Amino acid sequence: MSTMASAPARQQTAPGVRQYSPVRLVAIWLAAAVPMGVGAWIVAPAVAGPEVGPRRFAEVLLYTMAAGLIWQFVLVVGLAGYEQRSLRPSVLRDALWLNRPTTAGRRGGRLWWWAPVMVLGVALVVLAPIHLPAPAERDFGAVLGSDYGAAMLRGNWGIFALIVVIAVFNTVLGEELLFRGMLLPRMRGACGRADWIVNGIIFGLYHLHQPWSIPGSIAEGMIEAYGTRRLRSAWLGIIAHSAQSVVFITLSLIAVLS
User: Fold this and answer.
1) Contacts of 13 (CB under 8 A, 6+ apart)
2) Measuring CA to CA, how many Å separate 258 from each of 139, 155, 156?
3) What SS3 class is residue 102?
4) pLDDT tens across 34-44, in order?
């Protein structure tokens, strides 16, 4: 009887991965969110100094954000390697759902059409009036549009490379890999069928480094988590999240070349 009763529960969880307890989920969330928050609100102002201008502060803030996002990649690799007892690409690919979209009897092909639909959904969230006002010196879009931002980027390939690193670790190797690749497959045991909803919520609340974006990030996170969970492919969330990175990299490149 116990075997028969436990079978449906096992089928609801991701095969081949360990299901996390609520305590473990919170611990990993803290390991990602706290360094980003501390970097943005304590380390960056301390390193930049009290009399620093907006350009210098923007540069320091970029470096602290890069460090926090790279740490998330290290965290994911460490957790997955410990869990799977292997760092082989094939093992990590399965453990982090880095496979083609899959549903009953289908794999890849037309299922990739979920990606542009999710990109559109995220774009609508970005354009929706649900975002709180952001301090101009901490809003990268505002920095790009400012005179000091243009001066900082003009001909500065080093800063451009840093922006590319931030973009890659933000939407491919950092946030998405952690929340949709590492956590989401391991949340069904603790959260049931609401795992994608909870995943979106904790993704939004993780943004301690830019709290004004939390409402929009929750909505965005739910879109990315739903598609990822539905088709068991973290690539869908990565693609949806990376569209904004492409925009920022393009705008930054234009500023560098201007």
Assistant:
1) 19, 188, 189
2) 21, 8, 11
3) strand
4) 999 999 999 99
pTM value is: 0.86
Distance between CA atoms of residues 92 and 66, nearest Å: 23
pLDDT above 90: percentage of residues in the chain? 59
Buried b (16+ CB within 10 A) or exposed e, 138-167: bbbeebbebeebeebbeebeebbebbebbb
What single letter denotes the amino acid at residue 150? A
Q: Residue 210: count other Cβ atoms within 10 Å of its Cβ.
A: 19
149-187 pLDDT per residue, tens:
888 888 899 999 999 999 999 989 989 999 999 999 999
Which of 166, 211, 245, 205 is CA-nearest to residue 40?
211
